[in-house]
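Q: Hi! First time doing this. I have a protein sequence and I read that you can turn it into a structure. Is that right? Here it is:
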Amino acid sequence: MNIAYLTVNDPRDRRSWSGTEFSMAQAIERHCGTVHYIGPIRLKSILFAKVLHRLLKKLTGKTYLYTESISRRLGRVARRRIARLPADVIFSPAGSASLANLQTDIPIVYLSDATFRLVVDYYPEFSHVLDAHKQTADRFEANSIRKAAQLVYPASWAAKSAINDYGADPSRVTVIPFGANLEHPPAGSDAGKVPSMDRCRLLFVGGHWQRKGGEIAYETLLKLLELGVDAELTIVGCTPPEHVRHERITVHSFLNKNDPAQRAQLERLYQRAHFFILPSRAECFSIALCEANAFGLPVLTSDTGGLPDLVRVGTNGFLFPLSARGDQFATVIRDVFSDSARYAALRVSSRGEFDSRLNWDHWGRKMAEVFQAAASGPGRASA
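A: Yes, that's right. Below is the predicted 3D structure, encoded as structure tokens:
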């Protein structure tokens, strides 16, 4: 099958969508067919709009998104490029602005980790959106869902919104979890090995301290020490506020996965940790939790967004209500860590979840079925 991979970014760049577009492209090439890359689409109007929107946000406090004119230009460029290809299907991850004004008879597979109505005023970057831009973005979402022959989401949270909020046909909606953005995951036998239990090591990886619940991770460390558990916390991906200072905290504000030395350093942090803690306040889906499970790390996270689909309580981690604070996280960690047999079994089952469903090969095999359904099934739609 020939698949036109439609993105504004370059999916061959490991930095696009934090590596997710790259991982998807590799999985599609392995399991689905020949990939023809439509992106990157570099329009001067997009670059100008980004600069202007940042300036306007500073002045007005409002968030500005893609406009109708930019969407039309994206649609025209995509149409011209696709017309030169032997495409059986168009695949567009998080591409509502590109799809909304795309004119084509080729069946479309639209993937996203959420719908616009879910993220608006849920994610900080989608808060205080200008009303006109909010309406435009919602229209992009509605048009993309209507045009798509098949819709794919990583969690039922997003899939239900497509059906209930946008009227998507449930028979055209598929839920497939994403995988871990690791080129070379550790062997299962290595992931199952328990690191030295001399100290309980917590790992927090996230680029947004507040949204990822960094404050609660800090509280968890303090409570563990108060409970008499010898513990430490490693923070990767951000710089915590000034008050977050402790001799048992190590901070790596940024580790670049594209740099072999820094990637190896991050992998060592996963290998020596005992728990992965991410008490997110808002989360569509977390690739980091898949990566943690790849290393056999049990995860502790919040019952919000798409995370309940990802975590099977007691098998690969634990879910906590958004109201939970560090004392509740610490109590669970203490109880599990103090039982060496229970902890060892939890590492094995955590890795099992990665092997069975939280990897890109599983995603790719499922996507092959989706592409086939889009190209030949009754759900084929004319855009």
